[in-house]
Specification:
This protein has 392 residues and is of the alpha/beta class. It is 32% helix and 19% strand. Bound molecules: iron/sulfur cluster.
Length: 392
């Protein structure tokens, strides 16, 4: 039995042809699955009976098993989905006036191992399949439609952010059909501006995404210089900041927005000083670079949501405000992310899930020398790693 959540519409057309059906039948089938949430082939009344019989014999529409669901006081909903073999991933719905955003996971665990991130601390188990990525949206959309009593055609989810557990660009093969399903007018019909891929900086895949499916892009920067970013986001040693920002500039040639979102998690005494704000401003404006090519961007400052194993603290609100002021006065639009769902541990950096680490990250971490963050001397501190969670 093949799970049809695995296919974007083009692949579903190919599969239908293999079954001896016309490819256009795929569009009807796709609409039943992704616009009406139907999983019972017998109920798909405009499909010919022989085709329905074939579907019943050879295919299925299978969502993810819900291990738990929590609803926060502010209406944020967090689902823990069991993806088998001891792994579970989390998905978060964030309601706001006029829009509903779904934060989706792309991997069980993550191999990037960012110092401030609980998912990285847990290690890596496996990539999610396209079906498992799409199933998070499929479940949330149709469950919420029922609960909210939405009329036919009304949508619960207006925006998707690939900011849950995992580095989406390290699971590109599964991500791409999932994005295409989200954007498809016969699927969820989301505009490219309303689907955001957030990356820690997998430079070659940023270029591929630009060519294949340029949706909105967010870059998790978190540091204004390579020395600090090497420690906070180890992938920086492979793709340093200059290469990352160059790829972000190339991305804008085809992006649906005329800016990149820069995410910057505010860590007390690590990356939040006035001098670091000035350095970030200079970096993003391109001051000092040969071509003085700045990056059109907006900065999103994210107050760190501490978790026990992190050894890190949230920057005080006054320091976050001062940091934002430096950027704003320098001409860069800067926002401070509101914390949502923190009473159910659904805020940025708080997601945990359950991951069977196949990379022995815990052993490696136990053997590792404590990392010394290259912050100003007065604020130097040892940071020994962090725990799993939604990308801060
Ligand atoms: S912040 Fe993102 S890329 Fe870094 S370890 Fe966490 S999930 Fe992976």
């Amino acid at each position: 039995m093949v799970n049809l959540l695995q296919f974007d519409r083009s692949a579903l057309g190919d599969w239908c042809e293999q079954q001896g059906e016309k490819a256009f039948r795929a569009t009807q089938l796709f609409r039943w699955i992704h616009q009406r949430g139907e999983r019972d082939f017998a109920a798909m009344s405009d499909l010919a009976r022989p085709f329905r019989d074939k579907l019943i014999a050879s295919a299925e529409v299978v969502g993810l098993a819900v291990a738990s669901e929590q609803v926060a006081q502010d209406g944020t909903v967090k689902w823990l989905f069991d993806v088998g073999a001891g792994d579970a991933v989390e998905t978060v719905f964030i309601p706001e006036t006029g829009r509903g955003t779904l934060c989706i996971s792309s991997q069980a665990g993550c191999a990037v191992n960012c110092r401030f991130c609980a998912t990285g601390h847990q290690g890596f188990s496996r990539n999610l399949t396209t079906a498992e990525i799409v199933a998070q949206l499929w479940h949330a959309e149709f469950e919420l439609r029922k609960r909210l009593g939405l009329a036919a055609g009304e949508r619960a989810i207006t925006n998707v952010v690939m900011m849950g557990m995992g580095e989406p660009l390290q699971n590109y093969g599964a991500l791409l059909p999932a994005l295409r399903t989200m954007l498809d007018d016969h699927g969820y019909g989301l505009s490219r501006r309303r689907v955001t891929v957030s990356t820690s900086g997998v430079v070659p895949m940023i270029d591929r995404l630009r060519d294949d499916c340029p949706v909105a892009l967010a870059v998790s920067l978190h540091a204004p210089d390579d020395a600090l970013r090497d420690e906070l986001v180890p992938l920086n040693r492979k793709y340093p900041i200059a290469e990352l920002l160059a790829s972000a500039r190339r991305y804008l040639e085809r992006a649906p927005r005329d800016f990149i979102t820069i995410e910057y998690c505010m860590l007390d005494g690590v990356n939040d000083s006035p001098a670091q704000a000035e350095a970030l401003l200079a970096l993003l404006r391109g001051d000092g670079s040969a071509e003085r090519s700045g990056l059109p961007c907006k900065v999103n400052l994210i107050p760190f949501n501490p978790f026990a194993a992190s050894g890190l603290k949230r920057s005080p609100a006054a320091r976050v405000a001062a940091f934002a002021a430096v950027l704003q006065e320098g001409g860069i639009v800067t926002t401070v992310r509101k914390t949502r769902g923190d009473d159910i541990a659904a805020a940025c950096g708080q997601l945990a899930g359950e991951v069977q680490d196949r990379t022995r990250v815990a052993e490696r971490r136990a053997r590792a020398v404590p990392v010394r963050i290259a912050a100003p001397a007065s604020r130097r501190r040892a940071v020994e790693g962090v725990a799993p969670g939604r990308r801060p």
